[in-house]
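WARN no homologs supplied; continuing
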Amino acid sequence: IKRLCSFLFLTIIILIGVLCVKGYMDYREALNEKSVEEMAAEIESIDNYTTIDELPQTYIDAVLAVEDKRFYSHPGFDPIATCRALVNDIKAGSYVEGGSTITQQLAKNQYFTQDKKIIRKVAELFMAFKIESVLDKDTIFELYVNSIFFGNGYYCVADASWGYFGKPPSEMDFDECTLLAGIPNAPTNYNPVANPELARERQAQVIEKMKKAGYLEENALIQYLDVVGMPTKEELQEVFLKAQKSYASYGITTIQEGMTMDSMVPLYQMLESQHMLYLDLVAYADMANSRELFT
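OK structure emitted
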């Protein structure tokens, strides 16, 4: 048994070594074709490049909450997120969650293919460390949001903001920031033009992640209620009870009461997929009433 264990251990060490060597070779090949400085300059040269100073703090917080909440504290690789993703993938029996950091995603998008081969992941990791050694965190964040796909033909945050909301990123409000931050995870599915309901459902997930990460405080939750035009606490509770009975009756009742579907979609998505967040919003509604945010 000892010999067998020793053999298996040695085999694993050799396999890891081979993967690291091949991954490093792929990394060096990619880096020789385009340096980190050249990659950064290429993205910064786009017409609608947006600096981090031009981005609302809410948008920055939302992106960090959903993509990489320890971005400013890790060296390009987050072992906690990687282990969590690995456990969830094993439980699901398939690839359902990635643990890549923002830096790793930037490395993947700019240097490698989108396949999930182990050697490519190793090369991506080497490249992430290289990027972190050359660029500061704010620059990495800027490059990321200026080079990712937001659906509907938009490939940077400015194009997406102008395309979806008709305004520059600096003018996005809470509702728009949280909506936009959720799109890159699955641009085709969460495109608010093609799938407005899925986009709102994803937005509710973004808000919940912001809350768990400590980015969302009471005043921000109240601001969200004000932005989407929520009714009073009593009306919220009434709609909640009706929504529990029937999806269809919820929609009919909403229209009969004169509420617009656009303003009620965010609430409905939260009722269906984020009940805990809904309860928090109802609790904060009491405070909002005193601030005359509700009719």
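Confidence is low (pLDDT under 50) at residues 227-231, 243-295.
OK
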